[in-house]
Amino acid sequence: MKTSQWHKFIQLILREASMIIKDHSLLLTLLVAPILYAFFYGSIYINKEEEEVQLAIVDMDHSDLSRQLSDQVNNLQIIDLVSAANLQDAQEMMYKGKVQGFLYLQSGLEKKVLSLQPANIVLAANAARFLPSSDLLSGVTQVALTVGGGVRLKYYEMQGLNEASAMKEVMPLNFDYRPLFNERVSYGAFLLPGILALILQQTLLLGLTGSIAAERDKSSVKTWVETAGRNPSVALYGKGAFYWILFFCYALFFLTVNFNALKLPIRGSFFEILLVTALFLLTLIPMGILIGSWFKNQLLCVQIMAFSTYPIFLITGYSWPYESLPLPLQWLSALLPTTPFLSIYTALVQEGGTIYQRFGDVVHLMILWLFYTGLSLWRIRELSKQTLI
């Protein structure tokens, strides 16, 4: 780049900084919102796992086995047992929201288990709320299998089998379940890294699209392109450089301060994470300029971009498998830089992978960068022609 172009490039960065300082809405969006949202949403999921989900228990057996089951279920960190006099009482407690379900131990439970007859334990969980019902099911299932296996082990030992032979009868197939990366399968540990990445993206797009819309709203597009010497590339990345520098600093802040405060591990290479993040921000800049250039009203532009946050998160394959989306939504998702970025980002941050293992996603992100750069350069030329009329 020639010296004169470097001078114009720096002028555009300073011009953008001056424009933001004078625009209170942009100032709040770019300087307050990223930090505020990161700590606010992070604080919601800081505990990562829910604890003491209340579960009513109806013990109609009143045996040593039923008491053992109750004690072990109550010892789980996830569950807080509440006694209910009968089934109707337990149902009423669930309908009123006092408990998230009930556990029903039928009469004759111990007798059936000791005689190796089928015995039922009924768990009714309020599936209207996803997390409590899922956690209750996994906790109670684990305890039921453990206690039932222990009882059957004693039965076979009483029949004259040694411990090793009895264990083969109780558990002929040993299921070794080992969750990787998110070892405790906690909702917060899964969700928080993706939320921080989404905050980075959406606050950048809100600020950048709002800035471009403001240029058209205040009829200052001519000043912008003339400051760039009517060079679309300088106009694009001169304005975008301010946002790239600012949000790369935010990315560093999130990966150090927020990740430490929220006790989120970074299992992959820190350098590779920064490299991919830099490319991601570089792709968002022409995309943001392209989107903002179609608006003449700054407020309308910001409102639409704010509305897009949740739909973007849902179709990127982070909260719902990409392959399970309807085909048109898969095509739309493939046009978003968020989709390949979150795939690489998750592999690096949570799985300890490398860029080379997700090289296809890196290529996808680079193609989107070239695609949006080409479209935004064309759009800047069109706006530049309009200012000459």
TrEMBL record:
GO cellular component, as recorded: plasma membrane
UniProt keyword annotation of Membrane present: yes
Membrane topology: Multi-pass membrane protein
Keywords on record: Cell membrane, Membrane, Transmembrane, Transmembrane helix
Locations listed in the record: Cell membrane
Transmembrane stretches, start-end: 25-46, 187-208, 241-261, 273-292, 299-319, 331-350, 362-380
Every ABC-2 type transporter transmembrane domain range: 25-377
A molecular function (GO) term: ABC-type transporter activity
Highest taxon above the source species: Bacteria
Protein name: ABC transporter permease
Naturally occurring in which organism (per UniProt): Solitalea agri
